[in-house]
Amino acid sequence: MIPTRKTDEKFYRLFSTFHAFSEHLTKREDNELRDKYDHNAFCYSGQPTEDELRAALAYQKARGDAFLKLEGYEPLANAFGMECEETVTMVLPKGTDISDWKANPEVSIKTPDFDQLEQHELKYYGPLYGEDFTVRNNRHLREKLTYLGAYLGGKLAGDCYIFASDGYVCMDSLLVDEAFRHQYIATTLVNHIAEKAQERGAVLYLHADPEGTPKDMYAKMGFQAVDKLYEYLCTDFSKLKI
């Protein structure tokens, strides 16, 4: 198994329970935050059959969930009409020289004030997911994860969270306020986390959109793509081809 997959699974087990659902599907379930796709998915190993997908759909409907999500490390031959997104896992190899990374010396990294953190998340995620969900999700995550905030001029300019296990440190949900863009907020945060990981002898990794600008930034910093996750999502069951 690719080592980062083991760490990712431990991350999900912080929030979700797992149980075998069918021959090709395992259900990941979070009853505390049921309207979050990431913690309520079916993980597939091999191509699910139409009968398996029908059973998965019936299960979701019985739970009252208005979405169906499948995740796996190989593309499906038959996606049943579901939309697919890909996420690349990028690792910073041990021994990478980070001394020439661009960082802003005026930025301080510390645990963010939670009220400021919520307002920062609401500003960007509230319009997309709703204020209630955004607040519940942030509080849900910070119960079990370590958040870091980047402060500039006394204001929260950016934040992210980290999860560490088995010699690996995962950095995720990096968000920089638009008022502080182009001031090396993101690279300063990544630099701080990378330094701490190297001090511990741990390997830093992250997840990125393969088509997004951040992936190019991470590649220039020395991160290497080592894995890919395929995510199939349906929020309109009438579009399923079964």
Automatic annotation (TrEMBL):
InterPro entries: Acyl_CoA_acyltransferase, GNAT_dom. It comes from Faecalibacterium prausnitzii. Pfam families: Acetyltransf_1. Keywords: Transferase. Residues 105-242 form the N-acetyltransferase domain. This is GNAT family N-acetyltransferase. It comes from the Bacteria. GO terms for molecular function: acyltransferase activity, transferring groups other than amino-acyl groups.
